[in-house]
From TrEMBL:
It comes from the Bacteria. This is IS5/IS1182 family transposase.
Length: 35
């Protein structure tokens, strides 16, 4: 299982993701959605 640090998420956010998309990404780290 890969785990992103906040810095990695922040970098990805500045690179191509919006704040909302980054939020959803962080939520996906916490809650493993099925499907």
């Amino acid at each position: 299982m890969k785990q992103l640090s906040f810095a990695d998420a922040e970098y990805a956010g500045k690179r191509k993701q919006t704040r909302r998309e980054r939020f959803l990404l962080e939520m996906d780290q916490v809650v493993p959605w099925s499907g």
